[in-house]
Amino acid sequence: MWNTLKIVLAAVVLALGFWLPAMAGAMEDAETAWNRQDYATAERLYRPLAEQGRAGAQHALGKMYENGEGVQRDFIEAARWYRLAAEQGHTGAQFYLGGMYYAGEGVARDYVQAFVWFSLSEAGGQGDFAAKSRAKAAEKMTAAQIAEAERRVREWKPAKVK
Predict the structure, then answer these.
(1) Per the structure, how many domains does the chain have?
(2) Is residue 55 part of a domain?
(3) DSSP assignment of 127-139, as one string?
(4) Local confidence band at 127 (pLDDT 50, 70, 90 cut-offs)
(5) Are 78 and 115 members of one domain?
(6) Are residues 3 and 81 in the same domain?
(7) In a shared domain, residues 72 and 100
(8) Residue at 141 is within a domain
(9) Residue 28: domain span
(10) Residue 162: which pLDDT band, with cuts at 50, 70 and 90?
(11) Alpha-helix residue ranges (DSSP H) falling in 37-142
(12) Alpha-carbon span 124 to 89, nearest angstrom
């Protein structure tokens, strides 16, 4: 029994040893393709990672859909990918999703939601630009809406990848 357990554990460790670098390699390859503006290759590499729940790949697909890089420009699809990454705590996706709510692109215009996503992005390290964007959203909100947004920010918890 003990030998069987050791064999199974060794097999798992060996499999992870091959799988994890391959996953990291695919993300790096996608980023390299993106940087050289080979968007078709970047999309082909990002998509399976995004579908597996990788927030960085989801964020990248959101940007591709928002800008029409390698895919048909589609704000609804951009917002969908940004949301998946943002809900996991990806601060860049949180910022861009806030922008989509602020502008009403791909989602209904909602300053409360914009305020929430900008706040979370700022708290996660996006800094001044997120703070300024949040302040712009606040200018369009009532005191009650600001209080509601602040409550949502306090209660927010990142989603777990399935």
Answers:
(1) 2
(2) yes
(3) THHHHHHHHHHHH
(4) confident
(5) no
(6) yes
(7) no
(8) yes
(9) 1-88
(10) low
(11) 39-51, 55-67, 75-86, 91-103, 111-121, 128-139
(12) 8
